């Protein structure tokens, strides 16, 4: 299957990946602003929090492989503080956080590289055994294929309409009501090795 890379993707994204043995991440597809390519949601003490990676020339028609991260904006410290504040007391935070921090501090030049490194780490922690690779074979939505999922998981549509993800409640740190389909780091920090099974239970 072929899909674009997201930043610390949500659980639905991994529920989709789990269905396939071979996954191609298309880095030639055209970047879309205000998409999951550069943003994710985590659960803070007061509310769901949006984390956005600022990019250069995001308003232009540029292939994702050429989109650079804008480090002139102080997003990196904001993201690290937000993650530490949200999950510092989570059961598996101390086991996993350093792996993510090591990627953050590398300060990857391109968004695609940051996303790929984060995604590869998450797949490893989830113990997915899929074969994954980056490719430059852009197919737009008009080129239909059973295994073509570019722009399929998007912010303009509710996850329930895509029939991939079925929320399965796990123990979160904040609030009395379960918040579904957050970034995978919410699940990893809260459930650790059990995260992979929960992704499976969340797959329609």
Question: In brief, what are we looking at here?
Answer:
Helices cover 31% and strands 11% of the residues. The protein has 204 residues and is of the alpha/beta class.
Percent strand equals 5-15%
What count of structural domains? Answer: 1
Strand order of the main beta sheet, please? 1-2-5
* Assembly level: single chain
Distance between the termini: 17 Å
Q: What are the secondary-structure elements, in order, as H or E?
A: EHEEEHHHEHH
Summarize the structure in words.
The chain has 204 residues and is of the alpha/beta class. It has one domain. Helix content is 31%, strand content 11%. The protein is built from 6 helices and 5 strands. The strands form 2 sheets. A 3-stranded parallel sheet has the order 1-2-5, with no helix packed on it. Helix 1 links the parallel strand 1 and strand 2. The model has no long low-confidence stretch (mean pLDDT 94).
Detail the topology: elements first, then pairings.
Blueprint: E1 2-3, H1 11-17, E2 22-26, E3 39-43, E4 48-52, H2 75-87, H3 93-104, H4 111-126, E5 131-135, H5 184-191, H6 195-201
Parallel strand pairs: 1-2, 2-5
Antiparallel strand pairs: 3-4
